[in-house]
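Protocol step 4 of 5: obtain the predicted structure for the target chain.
Materials: sequence only (see below). No template structures provided, no constraints applied. The aim of this step is simply to have a reference model before the mutagenesis design in step 5. Sequence pasted as it appears in the construct record:
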Amino acid sequence: MMSQQSISWWQKYGTLAQMAQAAVALLGFVAILFQINEIRVNNRATAARQVFLGYTDLAFKNPKFSHPDYDAIKVGNRYEQIQYENFVSYFLYSCEEATTGFADRREWMASCDYDLKPHLPFLCEKHKAEPAYLTTYSTDTQEWVKASMKSASVTPPDCKLGKT
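Step 4 output (structure tokens):
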């Protein structure tokens, strides 16, 4: 009878070169996953910048909407009211994109907070008349708008900016 030879663990599972090759392949796969995630984050940030720049350009070209006299817009023609509603919608969308794309950078939210305040009376009246309007935005945006209305004392039925 032959004496039983002791088999090392690495002989049982493969040679050292095979194990090294598997380890390198695993590390390469993990690196690819990190790279894909980084590309996704960078693309999101680039898209957010472009959308917010589009809003900034729109605000520059339409100062009557970026700092509105909402009472005048309400009594104005229907075309101007629709333009203003679309302006506010684009603003909310750009803030959604910016805060999602730059979640770790508070200055984007501060910029949106600053620009939101003059639009609160419109959003209050719109929410009162059409509660489904805000549901077209993310839950975070809905909560942000509602919290901003509350902190600025903009509440139905009058929906006027309070003294804050």
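Step 4 remarks: The first helix runs from residue 9 to 13. The two ends are 96 Å apart (CA to CA).
Proceed to step 5.
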